[in-house]
Specification:
The chain has helices spanning about 5-10, 15-45, 50-100, 110-150, 155-200, 205-210, 215-265, 270-290, 290-310, 380-385, 410-415, 430-435, 445-450, 475-485, 505-515; strands at about 335-340, 355-365, 370-375, 395-400, 400-405, 415-420, 490-495, 520-525, 535-540, 545. The chain is of the alpha/beta class. It folds into 2 domains: about 5-310, ABC transporter type 1, transmembrane domain (ABC transporter transmembrane region fold, Up-down Bundle), CATH 1.20.1560.10; about 335-565, P-loop containing nucleotide triphosphate hydrolases (Rossmann fold, 3-Layer(aba) Sandwich), CATH 3.40.50.300. The strands form 2 sheets. The protein has a 6-stranded mixed sheet with strand order 6-7-8-3-9-10, with helices on both faces. Helix 4 packs antiparallel against helix 5, helix 4 (about 110-150) runs antiparallel to helix 9 and helix 5 crosses helix 9 (about 290-310). It is found in: Cell membrane. Its main location: membrane. This is Thiol reductant ABC exporter subunit CydC. It is a multi-pass membrane protein.
Length: about 575
């Protein structure tokens, strides 16, 4: 997708408003130019001392043009800005929907992504208000001025047309060409500044601990200085465009005046038409004066849209499908068969490196199954497939015979939930953190689920702080489990539930997690040997495949005590 094809797709549904706003803007501009031309005629005619009756029509028309200009400008703002804001809303919806659907968050740094979502998305508004509307208005009103000048004196009209083409087409085109690279550099500079600021704010404690705050602040200052230099170059180009337009306007007006005076001396043009011709030319150049800035702004808009294209064109990691026949079961057995998975990215045919290959795994209803493996072996990728953050390349994931890859992600996540390795807690109350999973849950239900996960001491109105700073690591995991249980899932996936916990807290958290998850199929992804004795079965993930302890059968069976020597 090219930047302009993206722009067309966004503006197409709002074409009526854009065209209406542009025509109203052209009408307002034409009324302004007409006022100047009519004023020239009125003053020149009044100098000849005609009767008041001869001037009365011009006086009334002057009032009409003045009122019409104000009304048309207000209507242009109303219609044009409405179309621009609606187009901006459409673009935001597309960007946010794509982020939710394809998980491109993984492919960009957080500060860079924020810059694209805010500044580059907002450039759609400038595309209409500061790009399309001034160009259309200048084109329509400028053509009218040329026709009037030609009707008055053909050589004067031809000279005005040539001057307007230079000031309204050639100079803006040059400004757009010269602004293209600075606009791209400005976008990169904004990315760097946003990324440096996010790194500085999010990594503040670590930077202080390692004495690296100064370097982080220097990185922010360097990025800010680069953005300032780019803005100065852009301002210089805008000044060059405005100066060039003024030069062309001055030369054209001087030439028009000389031609007109010569024509008056030759008797080919009257004094009154000469005054109208000169002031019409002056009004015409006022019409095209904003075009160099509009062209430069369009170059910046193009650069912003070009930076949104990779976000919108990000290859989907999950195919969204229609709901299948009948609801998924609220309890059941999980079966993984022949699972092959890879994250989108570099690789043969752009398919990325295969992380899992031919994986078989079973978690029966009411079972606790542990999955162990070295870092990078694909445990989190398996969890992503179960959560429908990633579709399998081959194989299947079934819940009581229902293929989860053929169901919408939201439907799957209603029956497969869990606790990530580093659960995110929002800077709000306990109640609002829980209601992310169940917006309609009442306080009694929320209090009960807190009790089930061992957080009876927390009040629903307690503030948890930024990133859960007011909670311990174990409490954050318990709160995340409470959120997962509010969904009432059939399968519960616990990713490193005991990471960074001391032994006493670890044992207490495990007891509460497993007690709260009773009756569900539970998959525990862990490095902690203390978890393994609590599992009914242990799988080892190695060389992209899952391996069972020697002598263990694949598939659900009666729970048995875990024997550490059998783990490979």
């Amino acid at each position: 997708m090219s930047p302009w094809s993206l722009a067309r797709s966004v503006l197409a549904p709002r074409l009526r408003g854009v065209v209406g706003g542009a025509l109203l803007g052209a009408l307002a501009t034409a009324c302004g130019a007409g006022l100047l031309s009519l004023a020239a005629w009125l003053l020149a005619t009044a100098a000849q001392h005609p009767s008041v009756t001869a001037l009365s029509v011009a006086v009334v028309l002057t009032r009409a043009l003045g009122v019409g200009r104000g009304v048309a400008r207000y209507a242009e703002r109303l219609v044009g800005h409405d179309a621009a804001l609606r187009a901006l809303s459409d673009m935001r919806g597309r960007v946010y929907a794509r982020l939710a659907a394809t998980e491109p968050v993984r492919r960009f740094r957080s500060g860079e992504l924020v810059a694209r979502l805010v500044g580059d998305t907002d450039s759609v508004q400038d595309l209409v208000v500061r790009g399309v509307l001034p160009v259309v208005a200048a084109g329509v009103a400028g053509s009218g001025a040329v026709l009037l000048a030609t009707a008055l004196y053909v050589p004067g009209g031809a000279l005005l047309a040539a001057g307007l083409l230079l000031a309204g087409v050639a100079v803006p085109a040059l400004a757009a060409a010269l602004s293209r690279r600075p606009a791209e550099r400005a976008g990169v500079a904004r990315d760097r500044l946003a990324t440096a600021l996010v790194d500085l704010l999010d990594g503040g404690p670590e930077l202080l601990a390692h004495g690296a705050t100064g370097r982080a602040v220097d990185a922010v200052a360097h990025a800010d200085a680069e953005l300032t230099r780019t803005a100065r170059r852009d301002a210089a180009l805008l000044g060059l465009g405005a100066g060039s337009g003024a030069l062309v306007a001055g030369l054209t007006l001087a030439g028009t005046l000389l031609l007109g005076v010569a024509a008056v001396d030759a008797g080919a043009l009257g004094a009154v038409p000469l005054a109208v011709l000169v002031l019409t030319a002056l009004a015409a150049f006022e019409i095209v004066a904003p075009l160099p800035a509009a062209a430069a702004r369009l170059a910046a808009v193009r650069a912003g849209l070009a930076r949104l294209v990779p976000v919108l064109d990000a290859a989907p990691a999950v195919v969204h499908r229609d709901p299948g026949p009948g609801p998924l079961p609220r309890r059941g057995d999980l079966q993984v068969r022949g699972l092959t998975a890879a994250w989108p990215g570099p690789g043969p045919d752009g398919r990325g490196r295969t992380v899992l290959h031919g994986v078989d795994l079973d978690v029966g209803r009411g079972e606790v199954v542990a999955l162990v493996g070295a870092s990078g072996s694909g445990k989190s990728t398996l969890a992503a497939v179960l959560f429908r953050f990633l579709d399998p390349r081959a194989g299947s994931v079934r819940l009581d015979g229902h293929d989860l890859a053929l169901r919408p992600p939201d439907e799957v996540r209603a029956v497969v939930s869990g606790v990530p390795a580093d659960p995110h807690v929002f800077d709000s109350t306990v109640r609002e953190n829980l209601r992310l999973a169940a917006p309609d849950a009442d306080d009694a239900h929320l209090t009960d689920v807190l009790r089930r996960v061992g957080l009876a001491g927390l009040a629903l109105d307690d503030e948890v702080g930024a990133h859960g700073a007011r909670l311990s690591g174990g409490m954050r995991r318990r709160l995340a489990l409470a959120r997962a249980l509010l969904v009432d899932p059939a399968v519960l996936v616990l990713d490193e539930p005991t990471a960074h916990l001391d032994p006493d807290t670890r044992d207490a958290v495990l007891d509460d997690l497993l007690a709260a998850a009773a009756g569900r199929a539970v998959l525990v992804i862990t490095h902690d040997p203390a978890v393994l004795p609590r599992a009914d079965r242990v799988y080892t993930l190695r060389d992209k495949r899952v391996r069972l302890p020697s002598g263990a059968a694949c598939g659900p069976r009666e729970p048995r005590p875990y024997s550490a020597p059998n783990v490979r």
